[in-house]
Amino acid sequence: MPSEKFVVGLVGQVCAGKSTVADAFRHLGARVFDADKAVHDMYTRPDVIAEVTAMFGPSVLDEAGNVDRKALGKIVFNDRKQLKRLTTEIVFPRTDAAIKAAIEAFRTSDASALVIDAPSLFESGCQDLCDTIVYVSAPQERREMWASKRGWLPGELSRRDSMLENDEGKRLRADAIIVNDGTLDNVEKQTGRLMRLWTMQH
């Protein structure tokens, strides 16, 4: 049961609109830690660029010398072993530290909730830092549409789904499920209901 100040882990399907759900929580006064943005910023750091280049070669760098996430994605999302190397050796140690720092800052803030928007929360082992876990799902046709808007080719969503380990297990371990059907009003109703519930439980 969440405490007076509670940390929420946000996980879910690829292209299910977790950012939309995170924004809805933010509008209700929650702080949000965006793990994807943290990783994006991380790939411009000299130490990370050096480690990624050593692991995958210079072909994963863009013209500015930063990590090209699309080029890197083509490698790791075609090879489960390479994906595991990248995440366990480079990404997770840094995102774990960033999540812990965000939680520490949150504890002394005025906010009652911190939402950790981290798709790989379970893989990194950070789920134990959260008081409650929310899983976001969406209808398949919506996910396909959102994947297309990202510029993904047909079949890319299914391929990435197949690379994820135990997605159904995450759903089963979640304390709540939000279904994102593409309607912002519906998402706001679900997030509002959860925030009221957590506030009543503290």
What this model shows, in words?
The protein is an alpha/beta fold. It has a single domain (6-201), classed as Rossmann fold (3-Layer(aba) Sandwich). 55% of the residues lie in helices and 13% in strands. It has helices spanning 18-27, 35-42, 46-56, 69-76, 80-107, 121-124, 140-149, 156-163, 167-173, 184-201; strands spanning 6-12, 31-34, 113-117, 132-137, 176-179. The chain starts with 5 loop residues before the first strand and ends with a helix.
Q: Specify the CATH class.
A: Alpha Beta
Count of the separate structural domains: 1
> What's the alpha carbon Rg, rounded to whole Å?
17 Å
- CATH architectural arrangement: 3-Layer(aba) Sandwich
| Helix share, percent | 55-70%
CATH superfamily: P-loop containing nucleotide triphosphate hydrolases
Detail the poorly predicted runs. none
Compute the number of strand runs. Answer: 5
Q: What class would the helix/strand composition place it in? A: alpha/beta
- Average pLDDT works out at 92
What is the CATH topology?
Rossmann fold
Task: Assign an overall shape.
Answer: globular
Largest sheet: 5 strands, parallel
Give the number of helices.
Answer: 10
How large a portion of the residues is in β-strands, by DSSP E? 5-15%
- What is the terminal separation in angstroms? 8 Å
Strand order of the largest sheet: 2-3-1-4-5
* SSE ordering: EHEHHHHEHEHHHEH
Label this structure with key terms:
single chain, 202 residues, alpha/beta, Rossmann fold, five-stranded parallel sheet, 10 helices, globular
